[in-house]
Amino acid sequence: MADCRPADPEATDSRTSSPLAGKKRAQQSPVPRSKYQIPAPGGHCLRKVTLTKPTFCHSCSDFIWGLVGFLCEVCNFMCHEKCLKTMRSVCSCMTPSLVRVPVSHCFGPAGQKKRFCCVCRKQTEGSTALRCEVCELHVHADCALFSCADCRSSQADGTLQQDTFHHHWREGNLSSAARCDVCRRSCGSSDVMTGTRCEWCGITTHVACYLSVPAECTLGRLRCMLLPPACVRLDSRNFRKLHLHRITESPEQDTSDDLDPSAAASKEAPPAAAETGKQVIKVCDGDDAVKRGFFRLVSISRATRNEEVVEAALRSFFLPGDPQDFELQEVGTVQRLHSDDILNRNGGPANQTPPKERGPDNRTPPREMGPDNRTPPREGDAWLLRLRPRDPEVIKVFAGWNRSFASVSVSKDSTAETVLSEVLRLLDRKDEDVSSFSLMEVYMSSKQVQRQTLSPQENILEKLQEIRKVSLRQMNQTRFLVVANRKGGVQVSLLIGGLDPLLSREEYEALIQEQLTAKSHLVSLSHFYSSQGAVALQISCFSEAERIYLLARDTSVNNKSLTSLVIPEILLNRLSPDICPLLVFVNPRSGGLKGRDLLYSFRKLLNPHQVFDISNGGPLAGLHTFREVPRFRVLVCGGDGTTGWVLGVLEAVRHKLVCREPPIGIVPLGTGNDLARVLRWGPGYSGEDPAHILISVDEAEEVQMDRWTILLDAQDVSEDANGFLDPPKIVQMNNYFGLGIDAELSLDFHQAREDEPDKFTSRFHNKRVYVKAGLQKISCSRSLHKELTLQVDAQDIPLPNIEGLIFLNIPSWGSGADLWGSEVDSRHRKPRIDDGLLEVVGVTGVVHMGQVQSGLRSGIRIAQGYYIRLTVSKPIPVQVDGEPWIQPPGHIIISAAGPKVRMLRNSKQKQKKSSASKDGRSESPSSRGAGH
Ligand SMILES: [Zn+2]
Ligand SMILES: [Zn+2]
Ligand SMILES: [Zn+2]
Ligand SMILES: [Zn+2]
Ligand SMILES: [Zn+2]
Ligand SMILES: [Zn+2]
């Protein structure tokens, strides 16, 4: 649901009226839509119905006792008789006029959870349902066209300058535990679509109560970490929203930007045969629908008056208006492209008529069916719904600066220019120069918002008639907007990755020139990250930016495909100093589907521009976006490998950041997670409320942590090239470094994972495989101590009889085991993660390792030190932070890696297993309603 408030109450005066007032006027037209209908606010067509099964009220969420309810024939809204007085819910046919800032949705396949469609208010079923990946709007696939572009506006809209940030209300799909912020009674339900919630601050209220909430949204509990939309600037023209939000397109995602006949056609199977006395006709809403074979099936009783047929047709397209103003014209055969069986089942006389004898293209005068025409429609015929031409007509023109609107009369002589000056006069800006404003036509389709500036001479009445002829749905989703002409040029920033690392600025410039044929007067290289093989381009022309963006994605350099991302600009002067935005990285491939769910939840809870899918562009995309933010924190959702990846990239690019040491928190996904355990983020994610996770991050304390560099100087790699496969020469270590049996187990496990990646979706399954791989090793025996010499802080250390040697930075190893042990001994200091020392521990074999894992024993303490030298005489398996390989003979040196890093440690004691985790639906009423 859109914001149903008067767009800007202060601006509302006698000449400019609020959308609600406009709606009431529509309802108070002298002739009600039909004689059954009860005039109702919100544009609903309510009818008194007898209830045959238990029903809940969509307005107050209570049970409807008794047999009488009021049902909207357009959107299926249902309420008590007593609730008619307080009803504030807005009908689906009216929502386009209430959008504050039109922003399209990014539809993807919905989950399996029970949700309600925002268009028809009925429950969605898994396979045919869609949900927006930014705001979690739920719709049926065939309802998507009729939803409007009311997604969250996560960046500053170029036209709207406002000081107050308004709530963005969205109706329905609240948790059943939700309470009304106004009357404190329960306002959520899992049985019907009821209640409303602000998409930013998360407060929930009854639809009848929300007008009592102060207009300004304070962004709620998460304000301190939320990147405010007003601070984000993103210039775009034809970039799809998926690209602007860096959302990876799933294969099943619909790539067309508009009508998709197969998805859009009516899902209601023709009940023709089943219901006696009923017949089904096909209705198109304009020439575009006829061309595409897109129609809605409208079921009517045979004896229906034509006015009621027109009314039913309007309802099926979710169109407001008086049936008197519309008419139906016969168009003959509509070729339905995707489902011939419906045509056949539904076959009527029109189907046997060759299309060329009829239809809009061959000048056969169409048979008209208006409210006064008594010719009943024949079954199977296709009809075209048209608005009867009027002259003059009244259109609403919205003001770009505050979203008030003026109603302007348009006659056949009206041009964009005359409309513009009339609107400025009505909006009290008559002293201003008309030429510094433009009239814009905005098509607010749910999948793409199209803005077009009208030239001053454009004839408005013709324009209106043209849009209506194409599609009445499109007309309902189109608005006219007055905007002040913008100063300042276009700036689009792209981050191009996948280039060769370690080149100079000139070499990168030449590479971009050569590979992407960039026009040098439009494109400049603003930043380059040679360690990452990435450059940032600043482009002062939309079409050049779009061209480079797409071309880069199709280009490979040295067999590596390039990546390209659109980077938003963060306006620092609008970022309040008390806000410390959270930069979130999620690895959607970690922890099965949990990573993906967290990605959606964080996009919804925070600003999607601060949430990065790490599989799309890596950590650099986020760090580059935040490069000038004076203070921020980082949250990494993934396994130890993902955390190591972020720490590594941060280390490499920190000298280019204003905030060089952002503290880092972790949501552990996948197996292992030793670092997350040490920092008290737990062993893994088990469905906690994502809003609670963010609050824990806000309350977390900062701690320092050592990091280590391992130099691997292999001799004679050529000796046995088969086993080695290019071992790394320098690696960063955060957790531990293991040699011998410990690494061998992770190597086996790693290979199994590479072979069958699909099998490793559950954390617990992963673990079982790990143990099994270990058992197979029991029979093997080896003496690692004979193949190694160890020097700690320049002292030779004799090794006992061991099969594995491990260097620990943190007191957790192999999924939470305490290898060093808690015992106090006089020779060693108590281990800390920030003491600049590594603990050196040995294990005698797999049995010993198993005992350590189960807490029966600890490892053999060998030494503590800050500078380690190892000499290896045979190829041995090694692992760093769980990432294994075979290391050829040679020298290994471990030393501190630059400054310590700042990490976030959860300051709460580990919460008791919340019942919340069962289905992820429970939450406290005051929480932000993640996942709903
Ligand atoms: Zn009620
Ligand atoms: Zn309705
Ligand atoms: Zn629906
Ligand atoms: Zn959305
Ligand atoms: Zn709010
Ligand atoms: Zn209430």
Automatic annotation (TrEMBL):
<dbReference type="GO" id="GO:0008270">
    <property type="term" value="F:zinc ion binding"/>
</dbReference>
<keyword id="KW-0479">Metal-binding</keyword>
<keyword id="KW-0472">Membrane</keyword>
<feature type="compositionally biased region" description="Acidic residues">
    <location>
        <begin position="251"/>
        <end position="260"/>
    </location>
</feature>
<dbReference type="InterPro" id="IPR016064">
    <property type="entry name" value="NAD/diacylglycerol_kinase_sf"/>
</dbReference>
<keyword id="KW-0863">Zinc-finger</keyword>
<dbReference type="InterPro" id="IPR046349">
    <property type="entry name" value="C1-like_sf"/>
</dbReference>
<feature type="compositionally biased region" description="Basic residues">
    <location>
        <begin position="903"/>
        <end position="915"/>
    </location>
</feature>
<dbReference type="InterPro" id="IPR000159">
    <property type="entry name" value="RA_dom"/>
</dbReference>
<feature type="region of interest" description="Disordered">
    <location>
        <begin position="1"/>
        <end position="35"/>
    </location>
</feature>
<dbReference type="InterPro" id="IPR017438">
    <property type="entry name" value="ATP-NAD_kinase_N"/>
</dbReference>
<dbReference type="GO" id="GO:0006629">
    <property type="term" value="P:lipid metabolic process"/>
</dbReference>
<dbReference type="Pfam" id="PF00781">
    <property type="entry name" value="DAGK_cat"/>
</dbReference>
<feature type="compositionally biased region" description="Low complexity">
    <location>
        <begin position="261"/>
        <end position="275"/>
    </location>
</feature>
<dbReference type="InterPro" id="IPR037607">
    <property type="entry name" value="DGK"/>
</dbReference>
<dbReference type="InterPro" id="IPR001206">
    <property type="entry name" value="Diacylglycerol_kinase_cat_dom"/>
</dbReference>
<keyword id="KW-0862">Zinc</keyword>
<dbReference type="InterPro" id="IPR056392">
    <property type="entry name" value="DGKtheta_RBD"/>
</dbReference>
<feature type="compositionally biased region" description="Polar residues">
    <location>
        <begin position="923"/>
        <end position="932"/>
    </location>
</feature>
<feature type="compositionally biased region" description="Basic and acidic residues">
    <location>
        <begin position="355"/>
        <end position="381"/>
    </location>
</feature>
<keyword id="KW-0418">Kinase</keyword>
<keyword id="KW-0547">Nucleotide-binding</keyword>
<feature type="region of interest" description="Disordered">
    <location>
        <begin position="903"/>
        <end position="932"/>
    </location>
</feature>
<dbReference type="Pfam" id="PF24099">
    <property type="entry name" value="RBD_DGKtheta"/>
</dbReference>
<dbReference type="GO" id="GO:0004143">
    <property type="term" value="F:ATP-dependent diacylglycerol kinase activity"/>
</dbReference>
<comment type="pathway">
    <text>Lipid metabolism; glycerolipid metabolism.</text>
</comment>
<keyword id="KW-0443">Lipid metabolism</keyword>
<dbReference type="Pfam" id="PF00788">
    <property type="entry name" value="RA"/>
</dbReference>
<comment type="pathway">
    <text>Glycerolipid metabolism.</text>
</comment>
<feature type="region of interest" description="Disordered">
    <location>
        <begin position="249"/>
        <end position="278"/>
    </location>
</feature>
<dbReference type="GO" id="GO:0016020">
    <property type="term" value="C:membrane"/>
</dbReference>
<dbReference type="Pfam" id="PF00130">
    <property type="entry name" value="C1_1"/>
</dbReference>
<feature type="region of interest" description="Disordered">
    <location>
        <begin position="338"/>
        <end position="381"/>
    </location>
</feature>
<dbReference type="InterPro" id="IPR029071">
    <property type="entry name" value="Ubiquitin-like_domsf"/>
</dbReference>
<dbReference type="InterPro" id="IPR000756">
    <property type="entry name" value="Diacylglycerol_kin_accessory"/>
</dbReference>
<feature type="domain" description="DAGKc">
    <location>
        <begin position="577"/>
        <end position="714"/>
    </location>
</feature>
<dbReference type="GO" id="GO:0005524">
    <property type="term" value="F:ATP binding"/>
</dbReference>
<keyword id="KW-0808">Transferase</keyword>
<comment type="similarity">
    <text>Belongs to the eukaryotic diacylglycerol kinase family.</text>
</comment>
<keyword id="KW-0677">Repeat</keyword>
<protein>
    <recommendedName>
        <fullName>Diacylglycerol kinase</fullName>
        <ecNumber>2.7.1.107</ecNumber>
    </recommendedName>
</protein>
<dbReference type="Pfam" id="PF00609">
    <property type="entry name" value="DAGK_acc"/>
</dbReference>
